[in-house]
Amino acid sequence: MNFRKKNEGVVLLSCLVFLLILLMLLRFTLSSARLEELKVGADIDEMMARETAEVAMNDAEDFILNNPTIANRLNQLGALNQLRQSSLSAAVRGFWLANSNWQGQSGIYDGNLDVSDPNGPCANQLCTNRNINWNNPAGCGVNTLCAGAGTNGQYIIEVFQGNSPGGKLQLGKGEEGTILFRVTAAGYSTNAANATQVILQNTYIFGGMRPEPQGAGN
After folding, report:
1. Domain assignment present for 9
2. N or C, fewer C-beta in 10 Å, the chain?
3. Hey, how many other C-beta atoms are within 10 angstroms of the C-beta on 51?
4. What mean pLDDT comes out for the span 80-91?
5. Does residue 1 sit within a domain?
């Protein structure tokens, strides 16, 4: 009788051990599933933020080439289709080479000025000397330009002129008409304060019909 009771105790203990192992496996499986869910959510947020930043970058390029002043100038020229390319080039170049057209406008900064000047360029990649809060999706319009309607994006444009007096590019003679644009764009997954953020930066050199991107980063 004593031997049989001892056996019954061992079976109970074995069942408890197996049950504990099963519970541990179940907990590990549930934790892994939760981590995968969080990872997928983070990937979706990052993708949305990147797409919004790309929209903001496209908006910046469109503003460089087709802001209302340039569009009005083209209408005044009344250019035919075969002349539109040269007319566009002249209109864009004329607009950006005249600092008075854009200097002081929110989100546009003159690269030929000193970084200490309120209208001057950024002192670093995130342009902290211009009091821009890239971490605030609702801050669009405060020292920045807003991306298209319905997007959570903002951008700034820094304008550098080729060989103009006081210009920082110091390009060779004959390059006075060259204009370099450095665009920094921020995109957000939502308009919430804790939204995922992506920042892109491109450099465009205007020397013809359209500015050509020279590099990108985030």
Report:
1. no
2. N
3. 15
4. 57
5. no
> How much helix, strand and coil, in percent to the nearest 5, is found in the chain?
45, 20, 35
Number of domains in the chain: 1
Alpha carbon distance 117, 163 (integer Å): 20
Please check whether residue 20 lies inside any domain of the structure.
Answer: no
Stated pTM of the model: 0.71
Model confidence at 109, pLDDT cuts 50, 70, 90, reads very high
**2 assigned to some structural domain:** no
3-class SS of residue 191: coil
Backbone Cα Rg of the chain? 29
Q: How far apart are CA 217 and CA 182, in angstroms?
A: 12
Token readout for 209 is 């019909």
Beta bridge partners of 217: 201
Q: Which of 99, 110, 112, 102 has the alpha carbon at shortest distance from 67?
A: 102
Domain around 171: 30-217
